[in-house]
Each structure stands twice: as structure tokens, then as C-alpha cells.
């Protein structure tokens, strides 16, 4: 039985309520920090927003990112597939005039054909065929994705393999898929950058918020590797893993 009081205090502190995908509790305090990417999704999106009358934010979470973008186009929708996030997103986004739509399958979104001038997507899965269906002929798709090896160092410490369904997911695969669906990729870039956790509580908070990293995660099940990482942090000052991110901007192919 682990009797380290500092370790147990960090673990017990995480029983606070988590709302949406809001990481500010561990990022605003510096408990988790990520190295800057060589692009800004917001800076990429805003110029396209100026020319868009209709816009979709896919996988809005609690509406954190979308609500930070101003001014919004005249007609804005947001999709969310995680039911507990839907009322949170509606509370934040409906006062801004955004219609929040719940969905169950990436391949069957409850949205009109060829409706959107701009579709943005931050770390949300998607069907290229559905993007093609709902994006209008001159529309733009901007997505920032977490790659299949994202934060693999966590899995190594826990002895949990990467999810085989997503392990292949990288820039080349995503670009090829969009091109196969007759999109022109006008910009793409991939980056691998450090992500650091400065206390074990921050890591537990992260794993509860991102359940697909360690699908069967509970503190009780993984108490021993958590304590080993806690000791690593005490020695080095932090626990570091590698982020895997990529960004793509694509439009319908206009020529044969």
C-alpha cells in the first residue's frame, strides 16, 4: 500500500468535476504544458471565417474553442457526439447564436447537403465522404488532428498498446484519404512536440478527460505505474511525452 502523502493528495484532488474538454485547471496553472506548434489553428481559421456565411465546428466539446472565435459568421452550427458535453456546449454557444447538434455516427451527420462554406475540426474524427457531402462547392475544410502516436509515452509506462484502429493515423494517411474523395489539399503540416506534466494529479486529470488514451483507466487499476511516474516527476521535475499533431486545409477539387 502506497503511503506517500504528497502522491495521495494529488490523486484525491482530481475528484473535482470535469466540464466539457476544458483543460484550463491544469494548463492555466502550468501543471501541464505543451510546446508551441509551428502553426495556430485559430490564425488559420479566422481569415476563412471572414468570407463564410455558414460555418460548422465539428466535435465542439463544451464549445471552448468556437466561443473564442470572433466575429462568427451569420449561420453557425456545432456538432458534438459525447452526450454529457451537449448541454454544456448549448449553454455556452446558444447565446452566441450557434445551433448545437448531437450526432452518433461520423458517417451520418444530421446536416444538409452542400450547406457549409467553412468546416473546422479540432481533434475530432470525421468521414471524408460526409465532409464532401455537407461542404458546398467553394467551401473550405480546416482540421487539426491528434496523430495515432500522440502521447505514446503514457501507454509505454502503463504497459498499454496503442489503439490499433488509430495507430496508423498521420498526415500522409489523412491527405491521401481526402484526395481520394476529390479534395485539393492546399496546406498541410505535421509536428511532434513535447508535452510535460509537472505533477501526477495533472496526468490523472488528463487521462480522465481523454479516455481513449488508456481506455480502461482508473487510479486503482494503475496505481503502481502512477506512483512510478510520480517518482519520475520528483526526480526530474516533470514527466514528458511527445505530442503528435497535424493540420490540413482542403477544398473541393474543381477540375477533373
The gist of it:
With about 260 residues, the chain is of the alpha/beta class.
Textual characterization of the structure:
The chain is an alpha/beta fold and 256 residues long. The protein has one domain (5-252): 3-Layer(aba) Sandwich (Rossmann fold). It contains nine helices and eight strands. The chain has helices at 5-13, 24-27, 41-50, 85-93, 128-134, 152-158, 171-180, 200-209, 223-236; strands at residues 32-34, 54-58, 75-80, 98-102, 116-122, 135-146, 183-197, 239-252. It has an eight-stranded mixed beta sheet with strand order 1-7-8-6-5-2-3-4, with helices on both faces. The termini are far apart. The relative contact order is 0.18. The mean pLDDT is 94.
Whole-number total of structural domains = 1
Question: Largest sheet, order of strands side by side?
Answer: 1-7-8-6-5-2-3-4
- DSSP E strands, number: 8
Q: What is the H-and-E element order?
A: HHEHEEHEEHEHHEHHE
Tally the helices: 9
Look at the structure and give the mean pLDDT.
94
Largest sheet: 8 strands, mixed
β-strand percent reads: 25-35%
Low-confidence stretches: none
Oligomer: single chain
Shape label: globular
Please name the CATH topology: Rossmann fold
**Helix-residue proportion:** 25-40%
Going by CATH, what is the homologous superfamily? Vaccinia Virus protein VP39
Structural class: alpha/beta
Assign the CATH architecture.
Answer: 3-Layer(aba) Sandwich
Using only C-alpha atoms, the radius of gyration works out to 19 Å
**What is the CATH C level class, in words?**
Alpha Beta
Distance between the termini: 66 Å
Amino acid at each position: 500500500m502506497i503511503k506517500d502523502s504528497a502522491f495521495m493528495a494529488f490523486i484525491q484532488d482530481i475528484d473535482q468535476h470535469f466540464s466539457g474538454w476544458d483543460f484550463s485547471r491544469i494548463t492555466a496553472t502550468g501543471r501541464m504544458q505543451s510546446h508551441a506548434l509551428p502553426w495556430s489553428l485559430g490564425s488559420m481559421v479566422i481569415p476563412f471565417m471572414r468570407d463564410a456565411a455558414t460555418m460548422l465546428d465539428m466535435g465542439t466539446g463544451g464549445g471552448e474553442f468556437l466561443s473564442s472565435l470572433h466575429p462568427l459568421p451569420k449561420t453557425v452550427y456545432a456538432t458534438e457526439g459525447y452526450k454529457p458535453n451537449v448541454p454544456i456546449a448549448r449553454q455556452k454557444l446558444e447565446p452566441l447564436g450557434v445551433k448545437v447538434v448531437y450526432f452518433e455516427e461520423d458517417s451520418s451527420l444530421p446536416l444538409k447537403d452542400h450547406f457549409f462554406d467553412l468546416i473546422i475540426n479540432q481533434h475530432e474524427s470525421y468521414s471524408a465522404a460526409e465532409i464532401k457531402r455537407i461542404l458546398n462547392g467553394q467551401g473550405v475544410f480546416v482540421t487539426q488532428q491528434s496523430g495515432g502516436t500522440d502521447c505514446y509515452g503514457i501507454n509505454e509506462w502503463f504497459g498499454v498498446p496503442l489503439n490499433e484502429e488509430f495507430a496508423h493515423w498521420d498526415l500522409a494517411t489523412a491527405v491521401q484519404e481526402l484526395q481520394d474523395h476529390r479534395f485539393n489539399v492546399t496546406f498541410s503540416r505535421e509536428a511532434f512536440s513535447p508535452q510535460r506534466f509537472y505533477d501526477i494529479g495533472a496526468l490523472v486529470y488528463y487521462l480522465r478527460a481523454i479516455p481513449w488514451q488508456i481506455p480502461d483507466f482508473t487510479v486503482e487499476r494503475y496505481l503502481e505505474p502512477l506512483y512510478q511516474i510520480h517518482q519520475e516527476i520528483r526526480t526530474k521535475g516533470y514527466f514528458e511525452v511527445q505530442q503528435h499533431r497535424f493540420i490540413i486545409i482542403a477544398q473541393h477539387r474543381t477540375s477533373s
